[in-house]
Design a protein that fits this description.
This is Fungal-type protein kinase domain-containing protein. By secondary structure, the chain is mainly alpha-helical. The chain contains 5 helices and 2 strands, in the order H-H-H-E-E-H-H.
Length: 93
């Protein structure tokens, strides 16, 4: 889910949904896949990403924000190394 939609206003429906939110959500899926999927199967989830599975929006948002600063410390699976430059560029922009 897009970061703007994870805060209280976004979750309460006070932020109009835009196509950019869908695009950002897709990018977060790419981040997940690039670190948690091997051979088409989900592998061991890095501990820094486990909060993404939580039900507390604040925790998920905090974890995603932390990821933007620590992304290089969470290795990508070998199958998705080709995504590294694109994801790093997206997150830093």
């Amino acid at each position: 889910m897009a970061l703007q939609l994870l805060d209280d206003e976004g979750f309460d429906g006070k932020v109009p949904r835009r196509y950019r939110h869908e695009l950002e959500s897709f990018a977060w899926v790419l981040v997940w896949v690039s670190r948690c999927v091997v051979g088409g199967e989900e592998c061991e989830i890095p501990w820094r990403l486990k909060k993404w599975l939580g039900h507390a929006n604040d925790d998920v948002m905090e974890s995603k924000l932390t990821f933007t600063f620590e992304q290089r410390q969470i290795p990508m699976t070998s199958e998705y190394l080709w995504l590294e430059a694109a994801l790093f560029s997206w997150i830093k922009s």
